[in-house]
């Protein structure tokens, strides 16, 4: 990004952070997204989570429950902790001027939990170790994301929020693709992988966890060097933890009185973001059970889906800076609903490849534009607090899409479970339609570009 000097627009508040932003700073920030895919793609979605279900537990039912039930309980506990703690961690990092320090702390803890997963052998006795580490990692990852997202106004100019946010999301998708392919070729596919690693005792998967931890640590370092720490907030906001909760309640009340639009956006985004998460969560299940893809093809589809989502986030991030984030989100939600409707009646692998990829095309832009929408309406110097609320509201609604998918698939069939996801996306779109767009931020002669 070329150096630029921007002043506050007459239609928008001034943003916090430096007015001159360079390409290397944006790249350093985006590399954290690239590295964090080690947790999201490898640990949660495609490698270690399935290993816990198939390798660690298998057909056993510890405590009378299946592995999926235990993982669901672990996720619930993690979500509850995030909902209770994320807002004050954001508020306290803003007030103390510790945004970068907190990002380093939470990222380091995620890396430690990933390293700890090396101890999880493919025996049911190790389930509880896996559950504790996965829950802790999920909590630390959310907290790290609060500090990371709050840096967005620091690494962009008001007129480039959309394209920088889209760049970050695309880096996350591409990083996940690249790391998955490395792990597959190096450790998962061969009988004897790199360094003589085999599958005995689940060693190949456990080594993948270690490799992914190192990957995350390496690519998280640039942002900690390139993005400066902000000065502390006013003394009135540097308070104890119990007082932080009281301050949070006061701030939410003031926010609702001053800017109800931001509150309604938090609630609307909680709905459709739950639907976005469900697209990837249940996509592999539907690909196998409904559309006839085999397991190896699903992995290939997963790589293609991430590529498409990344390109969508990157391309529409540029468009967002011209038309605003709300239009991008609404167009994306409509595209998702149309694709869901077609898939409800379509059959066969070919149709799934076409409309499944179209479905994924709209996920990236919706996620990226949601982040930049919030960055545009967050009070200057309070971005961490707002993204803490963003994480909390997202967690508060995270049961809706899985619950409705289970309801419709249980009453009818796996195919009809798509209706549950579509209903959540539709509810989010309707709620968002009542939210006003953030102030238009136009690029003047001095505005930077990414």
UniProtKB/TrEMBL annotation:
It is a multi-pass membrane protein. The chain crosses the membrane at residues 25-49, 69-90, 102-120, 126-146, 167-187, 207-227, 263-291, 297-316, 328-346, 386-412, 418-436. It comes from Friedmanniella luteola. GO terms for cellular component: plasma membrane. Gene3D superfamilies: MFS general substrate transporter like domains. PROSITE patterns: MFS (PS50850). This is MFS transporter, UMF1 family. It holds the Pfam family ATG22. SUPFAM superfamilies: MFS general substrate transporter. InterPro entries: Atg22-like, ATG22/LtaA_families, MFS_dom, MFS_trans_sf. It is found in: Cell membrane. GO terms for molecular function: transmembrane transporter activity. PANTHER family: AUTOPHAGY-RELATED PROTEIN 22. Residues 261-450 form the Major facilitator superfamily (MFS) profile domain. Its main location: membrane. Keywords: Membrane, Transmembrane, Transmembrane helix, Transport.
């Amino acid at each position: 990004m070329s150096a630029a000097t921007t002043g506050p627009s007459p239609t928008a508040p001034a943003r916090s952070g430096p007015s001159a932003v360079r390409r290397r700073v944006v790249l350093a920030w985006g590399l954290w997204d690239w590295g964090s895919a080690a947790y999201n793609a490898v640990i949660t979605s495609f490698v270690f989570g399935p290993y816990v279900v198939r390798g660690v537990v298998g057909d056993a039912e510890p405590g009378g429950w299946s592995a999926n039930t235990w993982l669901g309980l672990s996720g619930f506990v993690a979500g509850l902790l995030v909902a209770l703690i994320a807002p004050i961690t954001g508020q306290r990092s803003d007030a103390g001027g510790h945004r970068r320090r907190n990002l380093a702390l939470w990222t380091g803890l995620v890396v430690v939990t990933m390293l700890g997963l090396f101890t999880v052998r493919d025996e049911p006795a190790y389930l509880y170790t896996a559950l504790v580490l996965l829950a802790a990692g999920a909590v630390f990852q959310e907290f790290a994301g609060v500090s990371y997202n709050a840096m967005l106004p620091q690494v962009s100019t008001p007129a480039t929020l959309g394209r920088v946010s889209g760049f970050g999301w695309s880096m996350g998708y591409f990083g996940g693709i690249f790391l998955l392919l490395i792990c597959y070729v190096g450790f998962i596919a061969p009988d004897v992988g790199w360094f003589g690693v085999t599958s005995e005792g689940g060693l190949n998967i456990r080594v993948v966890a270690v490799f992914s931890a190192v990957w995350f640590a390496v690519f998280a370092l640039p942002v900690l060097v390139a993005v400066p720490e902000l000065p502390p907030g006013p003394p009135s906001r540097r308070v104890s933890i119990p007082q932080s909760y009281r301050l949070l309640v006061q701030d939410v009340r003031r926010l609702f009185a001053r800017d109800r639009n931001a509150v309604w956006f938090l609630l609307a985004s909680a709905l459709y973001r739950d639907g976005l998460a469900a697209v990837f969560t249940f996509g592999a299940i539907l690909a196998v059970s409904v559309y006839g893809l085999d397991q190896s093809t699903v992995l290939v589809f997963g790589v293609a889906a991430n590529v498409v989502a990344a390109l969508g986030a990157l391309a529409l991030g540029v468009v967002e800076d011209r038309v605003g984030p709300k239009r991008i989100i609404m167009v994306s939600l409509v595209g998702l609903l149309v694709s869901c409707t077609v898939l409800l009646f379509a059959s066969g692998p070919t149709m799934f490849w076409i409309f499944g990829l179209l479905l994924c095309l709209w996920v990236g832009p919706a996620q990226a534009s949601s982040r930049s929408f919030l960055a545009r309406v967050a009070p200057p110097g309070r971005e961490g607090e707002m993204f803490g609320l963003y994480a909390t509201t997202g967690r508060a609604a995270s049961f809706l899409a899985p619950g409705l998918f289970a309801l419709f698939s249980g009453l009818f069939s796996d195919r009809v479970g798509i209706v549950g996801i579509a209903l959540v996306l539709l509810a989010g779109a309707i709620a968002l339609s009542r939210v006003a767009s953030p102030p238009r931020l136009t690029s003047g002669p001095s505005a930077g570009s990414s």
